[in-house]
Amino acid sequence: MVERSILRSDTPWGEIYGAHRSALISYAERIAGNRAEAEDVVQDAWLHLRQALDRDKLRDPVPYLYRIVRNLAIDGRRKAGRQARHVADEAVADLAEIADDAPSPDVVVSAQVELRCVERALASLPERQRIAIEMYRLGDFKLREIAERLNISISLAHLLIVKGLAECHRLCRPDDLEGDGR
Which intervals hold domain RNA polymerase sigma factor 70 region 4 type (predicted)? Predict the structure, then answer.
């Protein structure tokens, strides 16, 4: 905490403080980049000046005070830069730890193998059954729409789809897919 005697206006140092405080804050603000930091710098500079006065006699404390303000403001600016870089580095490290939403290569290969198997299984089905499954699964058609398009009953459209999907599942069992690089 700052001793009040150094800031009192009835002391020579208090008069210097009163006469130069605004200019010192403006000077520090230009270097530090913000007013709050500049006010802290000027306060710290007065503490440094007090320590210097205890050790030495200063003939002209004002230039010395400006030098202290400059040095403290530069140090504060450098410290803020280091902290900002540290925060940025931590953010990058945090981002690097976030899981990638992309599937792993083995999942991609497995899906490709399964897709080729389903394509072969569909190609092996009778045309009307293949069309019914494609309309239902890929085109989001309703059973009624499939039946109308294929000129069959709704129950037959349902039966074609169920039996066709069962055949696709039978042809593409996971144990049948292993080692299938085609």
Answer: 116-168
Residue 65 lies in a domain: yes
The pLDDT assigned to 180 comes to 47
One pLDDT digit (tens) per residue for the chain, 182 residues: 444 444 444 556 667 777 888 998 998 889 888 898 888 988 888 888 777 776 777 777 788 888 888 998 898 888 888 887 877 777 777 776 676 678 888 988 988 998 899 899 999 999 999 999 999 998 989 999 999 999 999 999 999 999 999 999 999 886 654 544 44
Residues 114 and 91 in one domain: no
The residue assigned the tokens 């403080």 is 17
DSSP assignment string, 21-54: HHHHHHHHHHHHSSHHHHHHHHHHHHHHHHHHHH
82 plus 111 within the same structural domain: no
Q: Is 109 inside any structural domain?
A: yes
Query: Residue 113: which residues within 8 A CB-CB, separation 6 or more?
Result: 177, 180, 181
Total structural domains within the chain:
2
* CATH code of residue 171: 1.10.10.10
Please, which residues have CB within 8 angstroms of residue 163's CB and are 6 or more apart in sequence?
Answer: 129
Expressed as residue numbers, the domain containing 33 is 4-97
Domain-embedded: residue 182:
no
Distance between first and last Cα of the chain: 79
Q: Is residue 57 part of a domain?
A: yes
